Amino acid sequence: MPKSLPVELPERLCLGNLPTPLQPLVRISERYSLPFDGPRIWVKRDDLTEFGMSGNKLRKLEFVAAEALSRGCDTLITCGGAQSNHCRTTALVGARLGLGVHLILRGEPDTAVDGNLLLDHLAGANVSIYSPSEYAANLEQIFAYWHEEYLAHGHHSLCIPTGASDGLGIWGYLAASQELIEDYSSQGFEPEHIVCATGSGGTQAGLTLGCQLLQVKTGVTGYAVCDSAAYFQSKVREDISHWSRLTGIDLDLSSLKVGVNANYIGPGYGVADPEVYQTIIEVASLEGILLDPVYTGKAFHGLLQQLRNGIYQGCSNVVFVHTGGQFSLFPYRKNFSFQQD
Length: 341
Ligand SMILES: *Cc1c(COP(=O)(O)O)cnc(C)c1O
Description:
Layout: E1 22-24, H1 26-32, E2 40-45, H2 57-70, E3 75-81, H3 85-97, E4 100-106, H4 115-122, E5 126-130, H5 132-152, E6 157-159, H6 171-187, E7 193-198, H7 202-213, E8 219-224, H8 229-247, E9 259-261, H9 274-287, H10 296-308, E10 317-322
Parallel strand pairs: 2-10, 3-4, 3-6, 4-5, 7-8, 7-10, 8-9
Antiparallel strand pairs: 1-2
Helix pairs in contact: 2-3, 2-6, 3-4, 6-7, 7-8, 9-10
Pfam families: PALP (PF00291)
Protein name: D-cysteine desulfhydrase family protein
Organism: Microbulbifer epialgicus
């Protein structure tokens, strides 16, 4: 009997195709890990949560959208980069539930309608694009402005923070931790490590808290795609302590182990070194799995480097949580070059 979370889950909408598969990466393991006494690498296919709404944000939005409906909201307002996977997922979730969606996006006014931004428009979301400087300086006021604007037209909106990462959104990966335990039990192993890309910290926070509450030996490491290790150390704790306040469940945050690797961010958010693109090509051609240049490609590239460095030597199994993001491959197409006759 697999262990279960000692807390009751709040209301949740079933939007994803769960559980997602947990699959071995046979050829990647054979090339990068097993010959060097490294672990078998597994992938939790959260890129398959639901076609257009695919990726990690859907797990969080199952709880956030349930909250919006229970508060009687008819509109979702959220924010992110012009190629935000979270915004695209919110746009499609809104369409699926018959809710209005307003997206506050960071980008240049002439941002190409491609990748996720194309899907935002297809889903009928209202899109406002702000320059990076205005976005950085005024995000809170921009949220307040749109919230008031909708209210003035008789609409009640729920404002969802970046990446739906807060004490409510982290339920998504708390519940996923339970799902992983069931996966391990049917596959017959318990991994020493789970790794994922970390951007707004909520996925990592949910997995970290999940492993603590489930009392498993598995360590969780977020491979940062932006900011710094110190930022994620504090953001993960902030989301978990928000969860603790919302649920009234006391936690000893000082005993919480937060694992961050910030060595593979490269030039910055949304900008990757050529090696990351090489890794994307390698994983697609070796395993038939699509990574993206903003999140999963960077994180997986970091994981491969760490395997090479022997960091996971002696471990038997490591699980990479594939958090999605494939639609952003298209707007980044210029960074790949291929020969064809
Ligand atoms: C948002 C996102 C992440 C990071 O998840 P956070 O919970 O924001 O840290 C990782 N991968 C993809 C594809 C994402 O869209």
